[in-house]
Amino acid sequence: SGSSGADESTLTVSAAASLTESFTELATQFEADHPGTTVRLNFGGSSSLAEQVVSGAPVDVFASASRTTMDTVVEAGAAADDAPTFTTNSMTIAVPSANRANLTSIADLAKPGVRVAECAPEVPCGAAARKTLQNAGVTVTPVTLDPDVKTVLGRVAAGEVDAGLVYVTDIRTANVAAIPIPADVAATNEYAITVVKASPQQDLARQFVDFVAGPTGQQVLATYGFGTP
Amino acid sequence: MTGKRRTESTPWYLVVPGVVAIAFLGLPLLGLLLIAPWGDLLPELTSEEALQALRLSLITSLSATGLALVVGVPLAVLMSRTRWFAGPWVRALVTLPLVLPPVVGGVALLAAFGRNGIAGGPLYELAGVQLPFTTLAVVIAEAFVAMPFLVITVDGALRSADRRLEQAAATLGASRWTVFRRVTLPLIAPSIAAGAVLAWARALGEFGATLTFAGSFPGVTRTLPLAIYAALDVQRSQAIALSLVLVIVSAVILVSLRGQFLAGMRR
Amino acid sequence: MTGKRRTESTPWYLVVPGVVAIAFLGLPLLGLLLIAPWGDLLPELTSEEALQALRLSLITSLSATGLALVVGVPLAVLMSRTRWFAGPWVRALVTLPLVLPPVVGGVALLAAFGRNGIAGGPLYELAGVQLPFTTLAVVIAEAFVAMPFLVITVDGALRSADRRLEQAAATLGASRWTVFRRVTLPLIAPSIAAGAVLAWARALGEFGATLTFAGSFPGVTRTLPLAIYAALDVQRSQAIALSLVLVIVSAVILVSLRGQFLAGMRR
Amino acid sequence: MNGLSARIDVSRGDFRLHVDIVAAAGRITAVLGPNGSGKTTLLHTLAGLQPVDAGRIEISGRVLDDPAESVFVPAEHRRTGLVFQDFLLFPHLSVQANVEFGPRSLGLPEPARRATEWLDRLDVADLAERRPSALSGGQAQRVALARALAADPDMLLLDEPMAALDASTRVEVRRELRRHLREFTGPTLLVTHDPLDALVLADDVVVLESGRVSQSGTTDDVGRRPATSYVATLMGANLLHAIAVDGLATCTDGTTVAIPDRALRGEVIVVIRPEAIVLHRTPPEGSARNVWPVRVVDVETHLDRSLVQVAGPPDLAVAVTAASTRDLGLAPGMQLWASAKALDLDAYPRSD
Amino acid sequence: MNGLSARIDVSRGDFRLHVDIVAAAGRITAVLGPNGSGKTTLLHTLAGLQPVDAGRIEISGRVLDDPAESVFVPAEHRRTGLVFQDFLLFPHLSVQANVEFGPRSLGLPEPARRATEWLDRLDVADLAERRPSALSGGQAQRVALARALAADPDMLLLDEPMAALDASTRVEVRRELRRHLREFTGPTLLVTHDPLDALVLADDVVVLESGRVSQSGTTDDVGRRPATSYVATLMGANLLHAIAVDGLATCTDGTTVAIPDRALRGEVIVVIRPEAIVLHRTPPEGSARNVWPVRVVDVETHLDRSLVQVAGPPDLAVAVTAASTRDLGLAPGMQLWASAKALDLDAYPRSD
Ligand SMILES: Nc1ncnc2c1ncn2[C@@H]1O[C@H](COP(=O)(O)OP(=O)(O)OP(=O)(O)O)[C@@H](O)[C@H]1O
Ligand SMILES: Nc1ncnc2c1ncn2[C@@H]1O[C@H](COP(=O)(O)OP(=O)(O)OP(=O)(O)O)[C@@H](O)[C@H]1O
Ligand SMILES: [Mg+2]
Ligand SMILES: [Mg+2]
């Protein structure tokens, strides 16, 4: 459960998997600012986290990688506030570091024989990928429509596809290089955060949300490639 | 009256845990039925996408079961009949795919049969063949996770089968192949059937390794479980409807198989 | 010389598919070993998080296997020994959890044992107990997916066991319970062992149902497969290192179990 | 009645067993009959492994099975020591544990000592630690016998308990069994194919043929006065069905036989011992009134004695010495005359 | 040599079988021996189910097994018709399919007709469609016999092929077997516990005791001149080991026996038929030179004959008529005198 006494308290934060590194750093700073507080982080796919929150999982703060997913939580009455957008993320092209297909721009994705992975249109990253390609006026037939961005990234890292459409913040491993997409073409995604209504420690949770949305939070997020809302 | 005279009566110390087991397995299925969007079911059942995924699922799971049978039964026979194959390493090798989380299984399959894999690399360089993202890759992924069930079940049955019947066949002049075909196989037929059902069921439900190794493209590699997963985030009720399709189709197949399956099991 | 004189020689028509099967199962594991970040392995093996997840995985998978044994073996006995439980519906019920994609299994478990579920609802209302997101929920999820393997294996063995030995025991004055404990159980011990290994392996690798039904909280519900999945996007090499931990631990357990396991299998 | 009394009507596939059986306590009843006549079925029904379709099984006043009264005592409460025709030793237990199984299940005192004692008596104590799969056929049979006896049964049902025993062991086991059975106060049913077992061990005999009782009575009665050819063959005699008038019996095949008892009238059975028949190359002259032309069908030579099958009418088995076999130059197909003295054969009324 | 010649050294657990066996083609060799003496092991080794540890198996010049030459012909290439002691019918095949199995495997013409023919000969044709589980013990044995014979073997190995047959069927099957075996050109080994089977069917006899050959020879020789007590008991005779000097044999237990042949010297075997011994309440006077005080141990009554076991020395089995049993009032514990005429017993040199 969320709290365990007056001095010692544990704050449970469920956050989208793409926030893993940034939130880990933020949590450490938050703990330093609030002695006696431990932040327990629970990362996962936004929608399964949302499902858990709605089902009564012992969570104090929920950060979603998708506006739509957050809306379901708000509609279910599980959020304590209106869940503001706190950061954004935009599309880029991930290629294996060797880049054997010699891709240099988004237009190259349409070349014959180029294997492209993208998310399924039903999920946020897929919708964003589709929109990006539309904006660029490029027609691509992907070899797979994956359920989440980490699967796409995995394929790029393993060299099984020549390119994958992912978020800027996903380009973190050495095996993967990015081919930037012009800002006016790349679609962006909104991240939302809320205090969970059932949380027994509303104050502490509120402090964490404010901390993330505040200057320190935004600065840390920016170092990982996130944009400002 | 006859009820009282039956020689078999069911002792309570078996019935109590047995009923607990049934409740334990049955309640979730019942729960699924209760939250199911029955209204969506019919359109869902007949939607092009669902049918496509269902067809793909049936084709690949049956092919995977076939593949598992063709190479798995001989492996089981060797494991129970020869010293070399009976060693702990073969046994561990057969059991390990069971413990691998399916996604990691997919990673392992890529490492073996992917474009840069130890077998897939040469295949790509020399023949230009790429397995991932093809329907064949789905079959391979399903066979990889399903085969151990078949092998372990059949191996166990062979170990407890009476080898002396095989000796009797040999004294009647039956070649090894005849003995295998006309004595060994029929004797363990019930276990082969049971193992095949286990393997088929596992292949039909397979998700993680397929996704990682074969991808998820409608009509090519998106089997029913992948379609369910794809829908789970966004259209939960559609996902549940698809799950029901899977459950109902399997139930129909299992119940209609039953006659033959049980016939094999009878001694 | 003695090699030539052995009565068992391995016919090629079994060796060829057998070796194909071994290659098929072995290549992916080999691939995994090749891409493994061996440098990361030792720190990973001893990291607090990995140890915690490993401990949790072992505890929950063993508990789930225990649960499956306690209620699953009686169910198998009833299925093979009484008319009512032998019906097609029980059989379908036992097989269906195999086909459910694990994630849907998790949804079904929530529908049954969640706070608003058909059994979980009353439990919450009356006793204030919530199953989801607890370690017990992990055990339940694992038992749900693993039990069918045990039940089907044991049921198959019971069907082909010689019932006349049970009759012989009865004429010697053994009560049903004694017959069960001292004749039936020992006779099918190899199959129970095989079924338990299958169930344990399945429980150890279980991922989808656990994630959905129990969540993924370090130390409480984050088993090794969940930790692997969590690491997969960020630190792929860490994920593979964790998979290796899982594979190695299972291999060690399986190989050390082997002696006893095979002893049971010997007739 | 003190002992077993059973009216049994039971089916296995097409086969139907329909018998009335009485077996007195303290007596041994041999069950004889051709293969497939229902002996094993009878024993299994008595042991409670199969309920009767109709009828009633009662032992010393206790009803074990009666569909009309909805009574069925299951096998584990009947205390019947059943030795199965194919032994059915528990493959996962040692010989010792197999024999201890009954005493332990019943909570008898000192099961280990009991088991050892019985293994000792049947001379297989040195095999106590073996698994059944490491026993020879005869060893397995002795262990099965020990297992049944160690459970201290109220009724003993032995299904060919000595078939796999070698000849000299059989003599010993038979003696051991006789000693034990003499002390045994319950009824014993002993299925056997060896007439000697029946003669030596049994007080009474029940003969089953095709699922029905074809003859029953004391061993002596049945041995001396077989009612069917099967029983006669079993006892090593020739049997003819005939109608007697004034010391002359006319058989169903048309032959006439002079019999000793002139008072006998009506349907009779004529029994001729193989030793009482003499074979001749030419029609014999002399006092023997029964002379038939016959053809040799088969000659079986034992050490100093041959058994000759001849086709008549009547068809007979004839015992001759090795010397006569040589003198007569016996060979299949030969035409001979067979003679038998009226005084040397037995005739009695048919009783059914 | 035309036929089987085998030097076998093979182990099963603690048990070691170490024998030299010769079986001529066209002849039937009975294998006798106590339970656990290695008869089944011998047959399985000959059939190729177990390789020899040392030795050589040869049939009509063809080497089947010889570790020294690295030769091992597997079972399926030996054409041995083996009837297993416990039948081992294929449970998943019908009776007909069981019998067809051999002919089909070997590609013999008309397997179905062959099978039907053999089922017919063994009188179980009406069971053709049954599964083995629906057969009685004796029916299963006949089917097993038919299955082995239908495969047209070069060598026949029969492990108690008639143990489960009822007495009259056994006579028929024995006759059928004898007819077939007479036509059969290969060697036949017949394990049996019934001395009558050996006497009637076999030309030669091999006796195994504790994994070694204790006697072998023609049936007549072995029957008339048993070399061990086991064989003597089997043949229903008493056997004494003694040293002979001038018509007087001194037994190992101290008793002396007058024997007919005064020329015999050295180690001898004395055989006394149970019929040749007379029992007396008082010390007999008369010509019988062999008189011993004995105590009755056991009386077995057959129809009109009793077999009495007496303890001496010497220990003897004595056959008496039912009349004498009554006259003497025979009962265990009684003190009597036993006498035997020197001319009525047999003595011959020990040959080992
Ligand atoms: N499951 C069955 N289905 C059909 N018929 C059966 C079945 N079991 C036994 N029988 C038949 O019932 C009859 C009686 O069998 P049973 O075993 O009682 O004979 P038996 O007298 O013991 O013979 P044996 O001396 O050969 O052991 C046989 O003809 C047998 O074929
Ligand atoms: N697997 C084994 N391990 C140890 N000893 C064994 C094994 N199998 C058989 N034996 C022993 O080998 C000996 C010979 O057995 P075998 O079956 O050849 O005897 P047999 O002469 O056929 O006896 P029977 O007349 O009882 O059938 C027996 O003493 C038996 O206990
Ligand atoms: Mg029988
Ligand atoms: Mg034997």
What can you tell me about this protein's structure?
The complex is a heteropentamer, with 1 copy of chain A (229 residues), 2 copies of chain B (267 residues) and 2 copies of chain D (352 residues). With 229 residues, chain A is an alpha/beta fold. Helix content of chain A is 33%, strand content 24%. In chain A, strands 1, 2, 3, 4, 5, 6, 7, 8 and 9 form a 9-stranded mixed sheet that branches. In chain A, strand 5 (116-119), helix 4 (124-136) and strand 6 (144-146) form a beta-alpha-beta unit. In chain A, helix 1 runs antiparallel to helix 7 (215-223) and helix 2 packs parallel to helix 3. The longest helix of chain B has 34 residues, at 48-81. The two termini of chain B are 29 Å apart. By secondary structure, chain D is of the alpha+beta class. Chain D has 2 domains: 3-231, P-loop containing nucleotide triphosphate hydrolases (Rossmann fold, 3-Layer(aba) Sandwich); 236-349, RNA polymerase II/Efflux pump adaptor protein, barrel-sandwich hybrid domain (OB fold (Dihydrolipoamide Acetyltransferase, E2P)). A 6-stranded mixed sheet of chain D has the order 7-8-9-3-10-11, with helices on both faces. In chain D, helix 2 packs across helix 3, helix 2 runs parallel beside helix 4 and helix 3 (111-121) crosses helix 4 (137-150). The two termini of chain D are 24 Å apart. Chains in contact: A-B, A-C, B-C, B-D, B-E, C-D, C-E, D-E. Chains B and C meet through helix 2, helix 4, helix 5, helix 6 and helix 8 of B and helix 2, helix 4, helix 5, helix 6 and helix 8 of C. One magnesium ion binds at residues 39-40, 85, 159 of chain E.
Multimeric state: heteropentamer
At the fourth level of CATH, the homologous superfamily of the largest domain in chain D is P-loop containing nucleotide triphosphate hydrolases
What structural class do the secondary elements of chain B suggest?
A: mainly alpha
How much of the sequence lies in strands of chain B comes to under 5%
How much strand content do the residues of chain D show?
35-45%
Query: Which percent bin holds the helix content of chain D?
Result: 25-40%
User: What would you call the structural class of chain D?
Assistant: alpha+beta
- CATH architecture annotation of the largest domain in chain D: 3-Layer(aba) Sandwich
**H/E element order of chain D:** EEEHEEEEHHHEHEHEEHHEEEEEEEEHEE
- The percent of residues in helical segments of chain B reads over 70%
Strand order, sheet with most strands of chain D: 7-8-9-3-10-11
